[in-house]
Amino acid sequence: MNEPDSAVYREILENLLDGVLVVGFDGTVRTLNDAACRILGLRRDGTVGRTFGEIFVETEGFDEFTQIVLDAALSRSSMERHVTDVRIDGRTRSLAVSISYLDAARGGDRAGVIAVITDMTEIREFRENELRLAKEIEAQHGKLRKAYGEIESRNAMLSQMLKKIQVARGMATFLVIGLFMVVGIRYLQPLGDFGLGPVHSLIDSVASAGGPDIAAGGPAPLPTLVVEPRRFSSTISLRGNLAPGKIVEVVSPIESHVVAVHARIGDPVEKGDRLVGLDTGKIVAEHRQAQVDHIRKLDALADLEEWESGTEYAGAERRFRRARISLGNARTLLERTALLLEQGIIPASEHEQASQNHESRLLDYDAAVQELEATRAKGGEDAKRIAALEVENARARLAELGEKLAHDVVHAPISGIVQAPAAGDGKPLAPGRSLAQGELLLTIANFERVSVATQVDEIDVGNIRPGQPARVTGPGFPGMRLDGAVSHVASRARRPARQGGAPRFGISIALDRLEETGRRLLRVGMSAHVTIVTYDNPEALLVPIEAVRRHDGKYWLNVVDRRTGEIEARSVELGVTSLDSVEVVEGIEAGDEVVAVAT
Predict the structure, then answer these.
(1) What is the Cα–Cα distance from 351 to 340, expressed in whole angstroms?
(2) What angle in degrees, to the nearest 10, is found between the helix axes of 381-405 and 281-305?
(3) How many contiguous H segments (helices) and E segments (strands) does the chain have?
(4) What are the CA-CA distances from residue 67 to residues 63, 71, 78, 120, 380 (Å)?
(5) Is residue 108 over pLDDT 70?
(6) Bridge partners of 240?
(7) How far apart are CA 371 and CA 357, in angstroms?
(8) 295-307: string of b/e by CB count within 10 Å (b at 16+)?
(9) How many CB atoms lie within 10 A of CB 413?
(10) What distance in Å separates the CA atoms of residue 598 and residue 224, rounded to the nearest whole number?
């Protein structure tokens, strides 16, 4: 090789993006390019000519890399590709190391090891970031799906509640109209006895006309009252029982066996205390196998990403070139024998043999072309995509098993008292018991705050909402009134206790924090009387039910005009109704004088 050729090869070597390190079988570093110096953190003038062991064996963080090169120098036969990690300047780098051999100029003997080094650190970090972002996006997507499902469930529940309220209002309206008629007859009859004929005539004339102005113009001899603001509340009374303020079910996080029980039924525990120890031996073995699978999938993906520079593709390409050269030689020979046969220099059999040889080489060439195309397809985009998905699956499996390894001990989620599970299989929690993932182990009850568990029927459940104030009394703690608020309203009815019973919904009342003396008096399971305030207006305007009448789909009150003293019919909007009064939310003001009976 002349000097110009050497300069060209040296220029090519120095412009490679991958690092090239050549180590002789005597252990001496023969050469390395700029990329190798940059990747391995070396200086060329302090590396070339020194032994490989002086540079790498004693250097911390190069153990796997050193072993790969030493194994290649010892075997001197196989050409392999490895992926390893090295630590340079406090930073871990992922390197792909392809091993080949340097042949001597003469004799064909191998003279050294060629290590082609590719820095895959950025690719690895990019994939890890991409996987983390994908998991975060999927978690956000799951939250959105869950929120959408909750909104749909609440809309359905509200629709059912509105239908029931409409039915109840219709029945109430029918009863009010009937009550108006009874009261009207009752009051009009005595008025006739007192000689109020003109009033009757006025009412009859207006009623016959069908208008709402029943007594416009003229005095107001009927009983009246002045409307003043006052507190108006609507309540629902229920019976229930005292319960712990918070109960948390503890389940097995993995499929395993119990190896130790650290807390028994009735023991007090603090948040974070150990409850149950679980066997993770099977998961450890699965985790090791998952690591092996992950490494294999990474290697397969790395091979596909550099497929056309790999050994399999290179072999197919060499066979293709040989077949093409052989076909060219056979074609040349066929043309030459044809010319010689035409001149009578060779026999026809020799030309026939050349023709058969050409056909054979043509078949070999076609086979080599097909093999090269098939080999190229193995490293195509589909194959890379499949390999990348397999890497993601292997990484997800590895992460899942890593999480399970951390669940070798079940800890208390809250402080409280350990209790037996309400719905269990009855098996004692003891070492050796097999557990399924999600199986209920025990419950922890927190008694720092007390609650009340009660039930309500389907008619009143629509009026109860979380946050409404509640008052609790009971025979077991006479003289005490406990304040609290509704904390939970069940969205699904419980099965009736008897055949044909009305559906009932569970209600939870969270009581305010009690003093120590109050907590000593209360016991879980005590009976309690609960009063829930479903409506409260301290400035309500109330009128008697009999003062309101309905006409043309509206509600009307007879109001005395403050300036003229005459009675006028005024359209109003009604609110909540009690046994004898109804709230007027629009149409009158405080201080207005209304006729106490409808006419």
Answers:
(1) 9
(2) 160
(3) 11, 24
(4) 6, 6, 15, 19, 32
(5) no
(6) 454, 528
(7) 21
(8) eebbbebbbbbbb
(9) 14
(10) 11
**CB–CB of 576/232 below 8 Å?**
yes
pLDDT band at 331 (very low <50, low <70, confident <90, very high): very high
Dmax (CA) for the chain in angstroms is 157
Residue type, 564: T
The helix (run of H) or strand (run of E) holding residue 395 is helix 381-405
Whether 357 and 416 share a structural domain: no
**Within a domain: residue 566?**
no
Asked if residue 414 and residue 308 are part of one domain, the reply reads no
> Minimum mean pLDDT among 164-168, 268-272, 485-489: which range?
164-168
Domain endpoint, select from 51, 86, 119: 119
Residue located via tokens 């004693």: 58
- pTM of the full predicted structure? 0.40
Q: What are phi and psi of 100, to 5 degrees?
A: -140, -175
Whether residue 446 lies inside any domain: the answer is yes
Mean per-residue pLDDT for 102-108?
Answer: 62
Whether 133 has a pLDDT exceeding 70, the answer reads yes
Q: Which of helix, strand or coil describes residue 363?
A: helix
pLDDT value at position 213? 44
Residue 369: domain span: 284-404
251 burial (CB, 10 Å; 0-12 / 13-18 / 19+) is middle
Same domain, yes or no: 324 and 390: yes
**Could you tell me how far CA 463 lies from the centroid of its own chain?**
33
How far is it, in rounded angstroms, from Cα 379 to Cα 314?
12
Tokens coding 506: 């569970």
Rounded to whole angstroms, the Cα distance separating 489 from 458 reads 12
**Residue 96's closest CA among 44, 160, 19?**
19
Cβ neighbour number for residue 458 with a 10 Å cutoff: 13
Instruction: Identify whether 210 is part of a domain.
Output: no
* Model confidence pLDDT, tens digit, residues 381-396: 888 899 899 999 999 9
User: Do residues 541 and 588 make contact, with C-beta atoms less than 8 angstroms apart?
Assistant: yes
Q: How many CB atoms lie within 10 A of CB 214?
A: 21
431: CATH: 2.40.50.100
Tokens of 229: 């603001």
Total length of the chain: 599
Whether residue 431 is found in the same domain as residue 378: no
CA–CA separation, 287 and 326 (whole Å): 53
Sheet order of strands, 409-411 included: 409-411, 274-278, 256-261, 434-435
How many structural domains are present in the chain?
3
Query: Which residue has tokens 């406090």?
Result: 90
- Give dist(CA 332, CA 454) in Å, integer: 102
User: Between 308 and 94, where is the model more confident?
Assistant: 94
CB 582 within 8 A of CB 543: yes
List, for residues 519-558, the tens digit of each pLDDT value: 778 877 889 999 999 888 899 999 998 889 898 889 999 9
Residues 593, 599: Cα–Cα separation, whole Å: 15
Sheet holding 29-32, edge to edge: 29-32, 19-24, 110-119, 91-103, 81-88
**% of the chain residues with pLDDT over 70:** 88
Question: Residue 76's domain is classified under what CATH number?
Answer: 3.30.450.20
- 192-218 pLDDT, tens digit per residue, is 433 333 333 333 333 333 334 444 444
Task: Supply 501's token pair.
Answer: 């019973």
Residue 236: strand pairing partners: 532
Which of 95, 119, 143 is the last residue before a domain boundary? 119
